[in-house]
Please model this.
Amino acid sequence: MSKSAETKKKIKTILVSQPKPDSDKSPYFDLAARHKVKLDFQPFIHVEGLTAKEWRQQRIQILDHTCIIFTSRNAIDHFFRICSETRVTVPDSMKYICMSEAIAYYLQKYVVYRKRKISVGERKFSDLIPILKKNSEERFLLPSADKIKEDILKTLDDLGVKYTRGIQYRTVISDLSHLEDVKYDMLVFFSPSGIKSLFHNFPNFEQGDTKIAAFGATTHKAIEEHNLRLDCGAPTPEARSMTAAIKLYLKEHNK
Model:
């Protein structure tokens, strides 16, 4: 088969490097049905919680803080897990700031929403700046992973608020050895850690005709640094989400 023929090969199988969505209403399932592609999900990285002993070694007292900043659902899960394992009872007076409405909604898993002081941002951490300024007298705790976006800490530092970053979970490379002999027409990534996991599991990986889709500038940069070809990038003005970008790509490529 010629190189040009290989390039035009239709995409029939896609591997998404994330857990399978819980809801049947996920746009991924609509994508698979509409474009008749086989869609598999496999996290290339996963989260492991720090033990109570590891948390105590940071010498952070949760109750010395008056407001918790949540940037993800993982942060919520591990914050309340650590509280439970270290027998810390979070007072009703504790305030919460959530980076998005979805994160705030998830908080209801642990607290009675209507009885708590909860502030919500729109989507990006920078959207929280007015809320942080309004609550500048609070002592903030930022539960986080071992790796965090630099702009989050920079925003807090620039504002000059009193905050403590508490590492409560870490990102770990998943074992993908079961995929060694499985081939996909497209791989979908969402973080530089996913690219790192790919080469950790498959050091001799060669892209060839495999299409790579990726979300976010840092992921795009990691792809370039590993001498891979980015075939489908997001977000763009035409496609704000990864699924939207893939739909546009398949519409053109598989016609």
